[in-house]
């Protein structure tokens, strides 16, 4: 009787372990998909941005922007290029968004956007709702947060 009970407990623990492994794989896959649609690295998402100081081409000033152009991202079928301009014509941001994110936001020329610098990158959101929808992570943060397989 004692051996039978121990065997049952071991079998139940094994089954539970397999179930947890399957759920963990599914969770990691879902988290990876969600993350890739809502964030990117500076080197992958910002192209040719400019500012009045003539410094770093990927530096973005906090504030309100207006979408002035939408186009396909060259050599990237899965991305859409959104060009935004602040009140100062010298402050222009060129943001390459994943197509999924662009489609979900239904962005159009003339829409208001905002940029907000954070310690870990730059938050972009709609000007009408001030809800962030895309995070451009600093390259060092992006590398640290990259998806990696997890095993239990």
Structure keywords:
152 residues; alpha+beta; OB fold (Dihydrolipoamide Acetyltransferase, E2P); seven-stranded mixed sheet; 4 helices; 7 strands; globular
Estimated helix fraction: 25-40%
SS-derived structural category = alpha+beta
Order of helices and strands: HEHEEEHEEEH
Q: In the CATH classification, which architecture of one domain applies?
A: Beta Barrel
**Distance between the terminal alpha carbons, to the nearest Å?**
31 Å
Mean pLDDT: 73
CATH class of one domain: Mainly Beta
Fold blueprint:
Elements: H1 2-38, E1 39-41, H2 42-45, E2 63-73, E3 76-85, E4 92-98, H3 99-105, E5 112-118, E6 121-126, E7 132-137, H4 139-144
Parallel strand pairs: 1-7
Antiparallel strand pairs: 2-3, 2-5, 3-4, 5-6, 6-7
Region (Disordered): 36-60
Protein name: AMIN domain-containing protein
Keywords: Signal
What features would you describe in this structure?
36% of the residues lie in helices and 33% in strands. The chain has 152 residues and is α+β, with helices and mostly antiparallel strands. The protein has a domain at 39-48 and 61-130: OB fold (Dihydrolipoamide Acetyltransferase, E2P) (Beta Barrel). It has a 7-stranded mixed sheet. It starts with a helix and ends in an 8-residue tail after the last helix. Mean pLDDT is 73; it is low at 18-37. Keywords: Signal. Residues 36-54 have a biased composition (Low complexity). This is AMIN domain-containing protein.
């Amino acid at each position: 009787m004692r051996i039978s009970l121990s065997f049952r407990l071991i079998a139940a623990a094994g089954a539970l372990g397999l179930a947890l492994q399957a759920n963990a794989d599914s969770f990691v896959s879902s988290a990876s998909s969600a993350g890739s649609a809502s964030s990117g690295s500076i080197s992958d998402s910002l192209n040719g941005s400019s500012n009045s100081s003539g410094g770093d081409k990927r530096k973005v000033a906090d504030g309100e922007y207006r979408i002035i152009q939408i186009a396909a991202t060259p050599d990237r079928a899965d991305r859409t290029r959104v060009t935004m301009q602040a009140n100062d014509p010298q402050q222009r941001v060129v943001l390459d968004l994943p197509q999924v994110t662009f489609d979900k936001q239904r962005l159009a020329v003339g829409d208001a956007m905002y940029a907000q610098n954070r310690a870990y990158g730059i938050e972009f959101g709609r000007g009408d709702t001030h809800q962030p929808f895309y995070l451009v992570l600093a390259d060092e943060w992006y590398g640290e947060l990259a998806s990696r397989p997890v095993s239990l």
